């Protein structure tokens, strides 16, 4: 029995993964979609020249519209609201347009950049302040390129937070049905979750914000990680079918799958690294992070699965559930 070393190894890896997950939780959104702008191309050079001559598009359009009919008291509140916007540090200028309808206020604002030259944080603070201080009987609508880019980034991030748990639950359910063992199902998906956490920590350490392309990292690593773990589980079950005890079966499965597994990892990593040739920073970053994530997930599979199987997959009934047993 090797229960004590196995327990300690699992606890150490899971505690370290908790730290990695906390780092991944600090990832910021690329609300300006900067990573989606190509570099080194004619379009990129044209965009740089345009920004040098005319500046970046930092125009925001706000419409304050009454929810009911025209209210004289609300008009006074709207005057105070517009005056408050003019005094914000996030705003360089405010122009009120006369094309607004009855009781409406149509404003064109030019955002002030933050010290890093970005407009994301100022936009967020401005919209929060504008929504919080608007007159209670009126609704606020926002438009403009900065607002559209921020909305796209936030929508993609929200979709990722919904899709990844859903995919994980579906995979867990399918594995449970296939193996009829919760231990094997959890063991198959655990290395992928650990790999996602560590890849997120690496992304945060490199200073890469979440963009529309890197938001696909988690589902990609989840599927790749589960596939790698399933090979180890199948090798373990085959060893158990040959009358090996859990300890020898786990070690034998590890040795059996190590070389072909590393070969698959190498070819997958090379494929992702080929994305470095893309002129889009988002695609190049996806290639780097995916390659690193696949490598991390594979290492975690080989490190986590043997002790997990020795501890939680000891039932003799599992010996007849390998693919080789039909």
Structure write-up:
The protein has helices spanning 3-24, 42-54, 72-86, 120-133, 145-179, 182-206, 217-241, 246-273, 281-312, and strands at residues 59-66, 91-97, 105-111, 138-143. With 326 residues, it is an alpha+beta fold. It has two domains: 3-28 and 154-325, Multidrug efflux transporter AcrB transmembrane domain (Multidrug efflux transporter AcrB transmembrane fold); 42-143, 2-Layer Sandwich (Alpha-Beta Plaits), CATH 3.30.70.60. It has a four-stranded antiparallel sheet with strand order 2-3-1-4. Helix 5 (145-179) runs parallel beside helix 7. The model has no long low-confidence stretch (mean pLDDT 87).
Average residue-wise pLDDT? 87
Terminal residue distance:
30 Å
Main β-sheet: number of strands, strand sense, barrel status? Answer: 4 strands, antiparallel
Give the count of structural domains: 2
Shape by Cα distribution = elongated
Strand content: 5-15%
Write the topology of this structure.
Elements: H1 3-24, H2 42-54, E1 59-66, H3 72-86, E2 91-97, E3 105-111, H4 120-133, E4 138-143, H5 145-179, H6 182-206, H7 217-241, H8 246-273, H9 281-312
Antiparallel strand pairs: 1-3, 1-4, 2-3
Labels describing this entry:
326 residues; alpha+beta; Multidrug efflux transporter AcrB transmembrane fold; Alpha-Beta Plaits; 2 domains; four-stranded antiparallel β-sheet; 9 helices; 64% helix
């Amino acid at each position: 029995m090797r229960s004590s070393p196995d327990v300690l190894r699992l606890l150490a890896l899971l505690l370290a993964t908790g730290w990695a997950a906390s780092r991944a939780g600090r990832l910021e959104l690329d609300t300006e979609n900067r990573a989606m702008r190509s570099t080194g191309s004619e379009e990129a050079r044209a965009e740089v020249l345009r920004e040098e001559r005319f500046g970046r598009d930092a125009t925001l359009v706000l419409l304050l519209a009454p929810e009911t009919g025209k209210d004289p008291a609300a008009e006074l509140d709207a005057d105070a609201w517009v005056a408050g916007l003019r005094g914000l540090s996030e705003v360089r200028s405010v122009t009120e347009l006369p094309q607004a309808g009855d009781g409406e206020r149509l404003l064109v604002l030019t955002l002030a950049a933050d010290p890093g030259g970005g407009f994301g944080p100022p936009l967020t603070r401005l919209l929060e302040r504008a929504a919080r201080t608007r007159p209670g009987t009126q609704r606020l609508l926002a438009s403009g390129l900065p607002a559209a880019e921020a909305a796209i980034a936030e929508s993609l991030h929200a979709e990722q937070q919904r899709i990844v748990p859903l995919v994980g639950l579906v995979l867990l359910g399918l594995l449970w049905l296939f193996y009829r063992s919760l231990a094997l199902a959890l063991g198959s998906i655990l290395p992928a979750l650990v790999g996602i956490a560590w890849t997120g920590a690496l992304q945060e350490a490199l200073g890469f914000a979440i963009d529309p392309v890197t938001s696909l990292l988690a589902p990609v690593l989840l599927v790749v990680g589960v596939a790698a773990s399933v090979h180890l589980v199948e090798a373990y079950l085959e060893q158990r079918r040959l009358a090996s005890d859990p300890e020898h079966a786990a070690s034998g499965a590890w040795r059996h799958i190590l070389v072909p597994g590393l070969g698959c990892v190498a070819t997958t990593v090379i494929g992702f690294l080929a994305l470095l040739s893309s002129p889009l920073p988002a695609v190049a970053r996806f290639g780097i992070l995916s390659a690193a994530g696949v490598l991390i997930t594979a290492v975690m599979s080989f490190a986590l699965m043997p002790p997990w199987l020795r501890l939680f997959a000891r039932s003799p009934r599992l010996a007849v559930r390998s693919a080789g047993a039909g």
